[in-house]
Amino acid sequence: MTTKNAGKKETIPPVYIVSGGSGASGRQIAETVLAQFPALRVPVIIRNQILSLKQVEAAVKEAEADGGIVLHTLVDGNLREALIRLGMKHGVATIDLMGPLLEQVAEQTGAKPLEQPGLYRKLRKDYFDRVEAIDFAVSHDDGSRPEEIPSADIVLIGVSRCGKTPLSMYLAVRGWKVANVPIVKDIPLPAELLRISPRRVIGLGIEYKRLIEFRRRREEQLGWVGNTSYSRPSAVLAELEAARRIYKEGGFNVVEVTDKPIEIIAAEIVNVVSPNLDKERRRPMPY
Length: 287
Fold this sequence. Notes:
CATH topology of the largest domain: Rossmann fold
CATH superfamily of the largest domain: P-loop containing nucleotide triphosphate hydrolases
Number of strands: 8
Low-confidence stretches: 2-9
Structural class: alpha/beta
CATH architecture of the largest domain: 3-Layer(aba) Sandwich
Order of helices and strands: EHEHEHEHHHEHEEHHEH
Radius of gyration: 26 Å
Oligomer: single chain
Largest sheet: 4 strands, parallel
């Protein structure tokens, strides 16, 4: 998949994903195929929400200019035919992911497709909400991307080894967008915490002897035994006292986690947070 232009460095043409919806299906297929060519770095360009002939023409011309190919998931028959026709006219290779199957099902059943872009995603909204929430929790773990904290439904804060990450993942599987932020000595908390309602921030409390146990276990795993103050009782007590001050000063609700099953802790967090979220941000959590 290489082209050479006079006076220019050899380049790899892009794959254009043309879709009437989000383009997620086409992207997944393209990336699955391109994974078979690990030495290549093929650009994948999304052109979604393509709902008019003018948009189809623009996408084809863009692919022509780049020497790229078009992978399309258009369910609108007229737009799909127009794209194929324009691809032939402009010398752009087009790969139709939807048309053959739509036509085969229609022929065999006599049913007519709805031709509504994004319908699969709408029907599977709960599923995609959960996937989005899991992705959010992973990318906002342990204080990552603090500038995006306002986008979270729930923000968990607490000292090291109090269970922030597993709780974040558990809540995310149930559709909640969760960020977690560690409380670390001499490191200020992100300013973004002060820009959201304190009712969306949950401080995690833990009994200090149990925390020492968890930290000593972690030290053994990492080979830190005897080298740090990580599990020293006086240091742990000081950290927990500092965390309590932060919770009080910030007006944050506290949920105790000591010796509780994760599902019980999560339920307590949701019970605290959910009444305070706007209706459009609420996500049901079955138990």
